[in-house]
Amino acid sequence: MVIRQVDGCPTKIKNGHLAMMEYFRQNILQVSYYNWWMVGIYIVLLTIFLFGILQPRKKTEWKSAGVAQAWVIALYAEMYGVPLTAYWVMGWLGRSQADAEIHYNGHLWPLIFAPDWEYLELAQFWFTVIGQFFVLSGAILAIVGWRQLYQAVKENRMADRGLYRFIRHPQYTGFFLFLLGSVINWPTAITLLTLPILCWVYWRLAQMEENDSLQIFGDKYRIYMAKTGRFLPGISRVPSAVAIEDETS
Question: Which of 44, 39, 107 is nearest to 75 (CA)?
Answer without folding.
Answer: 39
